[in-house]
Amino acid sequence: MTNIAVAEGASVLANPRAAGPGAPYGPARETILDGAGFDRAEAAIRDWPGYRETPLLGLPTLASQLGLGALQYKDESGRFGLGSFKALGGAYAVYRLIARHIAARHGVPMPRPADILGGRYIDEVRSLTVTCATDGNHGRSVAWGAQLFGCRCVIYIHATVSEGRRAAIARYGAEVVRVPGNYDDSVRHAAAEAEKNGWTVVSDTTYEGYRDIPIDVMHGYGVMAREIIYQTPEPPTHVFVQAGVGALAASVCAAFWLAWGPGRPRFTVVEPVNAACLYQSGLAGHPVAVQGDLETVMAGLACGEVSPVAWEILAGGADAFATVDDAFALEGMRVFAEPSGADPAIVSGETGASGLALLLATADNEPIRDILRLDEGSRVLLIGSEGDTDPAIYREVVGRTADEVRR
After folding, report:
1. Would you place residue 1 in the very low, low, confident or very high pLDDT band (cuts 50, 70, 90)?
2. Same domain for 205 and 246?
3. Would you place residue 39 in the very low, low, confident or very high pLDDT band (cuts 50, 70, 90)?
4. Per-residue pLDDT reduced to its tens digit, 223-256
5. Sign of CA dihedral 236, 317, 90, 106
6. What is the pTM of this model?
7. How remote is the C-alpha of 206 from its chain's centroid?
8. d(C-alpha 64, C-alpha 67), whole Å
9. CA-to-CA dists, residue 384 to 68, 148, 160, 260, 282, angstroms
10. 377 and 258, same structural domain?
11. Ramachandran angles phi, psi of 234, nearest 5°
């Protein structure tokens, strides 16, 4: 029998197929994400202009209020000026695509980023067009990567993507096209347009016949996880990671599993109530598509279909799948912006606050804390995947601008 506990605005499922802390990562998972892939991504991204590690912040007062031993927050709001961890994945996949094209054309090893950035292959790079569908942050990363390395970019957004997020993508020189329907509809539209025009899709989700580029995206995300490994003296006991299609969650899970083995933290995947494809897949034991408009304020998580390769990691790597209501994500943004004690003020978007949202929704729910195995000694890591990626929405929710919060 599945082990499910429910609170007002949240639900948690203990994964009946969890591999357990002592299970090896294993060769099957290494065909998707492996140490060599993370090494390549780290070496490339550390050489990009403007690279620096993002901070890992401690929140001792909030941890005490939530009945935890420690609480840490990986703050991606300053990543390459894009305000999101997505800067690591989409742009890295654009680089890899361009490098593979050059290597095949000239019969040479894949060039380093500096070789491409220096303009040596500019005419060939300009002949390429990359495209994708996005809720906002991934498209911004692909557009930024295309601008950085010099190729053309067309981005598709669905009906409910905010105007602020559309404008942020266009700022990096991409052509942005709004299409009817939800995120999954826009994914299919982007694939069809790419096929018709000879463009290349740079997506973070896999589908039949399309695998290598999303795996590049996921290896790029792993740079963030590697930074956490370097920044913390001991592994956290728990990590809460938000999921749309599951690419970020799978990347973090894999990187921690490879680095910490049996000492890896318990891993919980967090999704909005209305877009809980991984939660439903956990119930079913196989990928399940969630239908409908997928409406949620956690815009970066409004996805109804699991990425198959992400599922191959998370089916055994996740200890629990959880859903949380939008209201707690909004409350999480405000709690971060108005800290208690000596905790730092944090600028977090709705998606970035989803891990805290689950903690807020379940703080007094003993059955859920039992499933998650949370107690006063737990050291919990949250992934702050975005800052104020839509400044207007952020100010409306928090009541202040991001700059005012930081001051």
Report:
1. very low
2. no
3. very high
4. 999 999 999 999 999 999 999 999 999 999 999 9
5. positive
6. 0.94
7. 15
8. 5
9. 18, 25, 23, 21, 24
10. yes
11. -145, 150
**Six-digit token pair at 41?**
């991504």
Could you tell me the two tokens for 329?
A: 């994500």
CA–CA separation, 312 and 275 (whole Å): 19
Sheet holding 238-242, edge to edge: 3-7, 10-14, 320-324, 266-272, 238-242, 379-384, 70-75, 56-58
Does 146 lie in the same domain as 204? Answer: yes
Query: Of the residues 157, 192, 210, which one is the last residue of a structural domain?
Result: 210
Place of tokens 């300053």: 78
Residue 214 DSSP symbol? H
- 44 with 129, same domain: the answer is no
- Active-site annotation, residues: 86, 135
Q: 76 with 104, same domain?
A: no
CA 104, CA 311: separation in Å to the nearest integer? Answer: 31
> What secondary structure letter does DSSP report for 10?
E
Task: Indicate the pairing of strand 70-75 with strand 379-384.
Answer: parallel
Residue 59 pLDDT level (bands cut at 50, 70, 90): very high
The per-residue b/e assignment along 173-192, b for 16 or more CB within 10 angstroms, e otherwise, is ebebbeeeebbbbbbebbbe
**How far apart are alpha carbons 329 and 382 in whole angstroms?**
13
Residue ranges making up the domain that contains 133: 86-210
Q: Which residue has the higher pLDDT, 95 or 208?
A: 95
Amino acid identity for residue 207 in this structure: Y
pLDDT of 72-103, one tens digit each?
A: 999 999 999 999 998 999 999 999 999 999 99
Q: How far apart are CA 203 and CA 222, in angstroms?
A: 16
Which residue, of 173, 189, 210, is where some domain finishes? 210
